[in-house]
């Protein structure tokens, strides 16, 4: 088995930039309510946001050896996604590795394990999304695969798939579907902006969401004042 694959297909930087205009929730809804990672995965600071192709790595629980190797092989703009068995009681990533990623121009770190040195990471400005925050140390013992498919947050992530993270969570977009998802996300964004404008002009939820017949069919009774 080849542990580390260095030649992966990534979408163009232009496509990633255009996808980044949309929120994780918009993308999730636009692509048919798929791709949302587990809601356990949250940013260490709500202002953090990223969009980039995934460098995937599978780590043993409480072991960050392969995470360090993945950072070495990741390319500028990549998001390092580290699957570690959802082991929460370990600080597998901190400010030292954060600085290593920042220096390489990597877009962010996503892990289902824990991270630490969060205040330093926030000040560094590197987007970090994790399953927990833990000060407990790790070992460097077990080798594993890099840039192979991984199961993460209830989704299968393939290397080169695009990850979009913001205050609400993380969504994955298949690399070969990015242009279609951009189109669908723009359509949804336009429709929502129009709806908001109509609300501001006095429109109501029942009228604008076409709920009259739905509510009637369900037998909703309203007491008239």
From TrEMBL:
It holds the Pfam family RraA-like. Substrate binds at residues 94-97, 116. Residues 174-201 form a coiled coil. Its EC number is 4.1.1.112, 4.1.3.17. GO terms for biological process: carboxylic acid catabolic process; monocarboxylic acid metabolic process; phenol-containing compound catabolic process. CDD domains: RraA_family. GO terms for molecular function: 4-hydroxy-4-methyl-2-oxoglutarate aldolase activity; metal ion binding; oxaloacetate decarboxylase activity. Keywords: Coiled coil, Lyase, Magnesium, Metal-binding. It catalyses: oxaloacetate + H(+) = pyruvate + CO2; 4-hydroxy-4-methyl-2-oxoglutarate = 2 pyruvate. Mg(2+) binds at residue 117. It comes from the Bacteria. InterPro entries: RraA/RraA-like, RraA/RraA-like_sf. Its cofactor is Mg(2+); a divalent metal cation. Gene3D superfamilies: Ribonuclease E inhibitor RraA/RraA-like. Belongs to the LigK/PcmE family. Catalyzes the aldol cleavage of 4-hydroxy-4-methyl-2-oxoglutarate (HMG) into 2 molecules of pyruvate. Also contains a secondary oxaloacetate (OAA) decarboxylase activity due to the common pyruvate enolate transition state formed following C-C bond cleavage in the retro-aldol and decarboxylation reactions. Homohexamer. This is Putative 4-hydroxy-4-methyl-2-oxoglutarate aldolase.
């Amino acid at each position: 088995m080849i542990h580390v694959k260095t030649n992966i297909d990534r979408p163009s930087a232009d496509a990633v930039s255009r996808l980044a205009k949309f929120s994780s929730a918009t993308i999730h809804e636009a692509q048919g309510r798929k791709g949302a990672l587990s809601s356990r995965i949250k940013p260490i600071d709500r202002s953090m946001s990223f969009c980039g192709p995934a460098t995937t790595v599978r780590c043993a629980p409480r072991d960050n050896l392969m995470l360090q190797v993945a950072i070495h092989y990741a390319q500028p703009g990549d998001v390092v996604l580290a699957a570690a068995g959802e082991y929460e009681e370990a600080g597998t990533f901190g400010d030292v590795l954060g600085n290593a990623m920042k220096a390489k121009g990597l877009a962010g770190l996503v892990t289902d394990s824990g991270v630490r040195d969060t205040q330093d990471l926030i000040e560094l400005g590197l987007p970090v999304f994790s399953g927990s925050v833990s000060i407990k140390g790790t070992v460097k013992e077990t080798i594993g695969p890099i840039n192979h498919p991984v199961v993460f947050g209830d989704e299968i992530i393939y290397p080169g798939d695009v990850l979009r993270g913001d205050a609400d969570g993380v969504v994955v977009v298949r690399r070969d579907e990015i242009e279609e998802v951009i189109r669908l996300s723009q359509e949804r964004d336009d429709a929502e902006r129009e709806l908001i404008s109509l609300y501001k002009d006095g429109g109501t939820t029942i009228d604008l969401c076409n709920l009259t017949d739905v509510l009637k069919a369900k037998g909703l009774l309203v007491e008239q004042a």
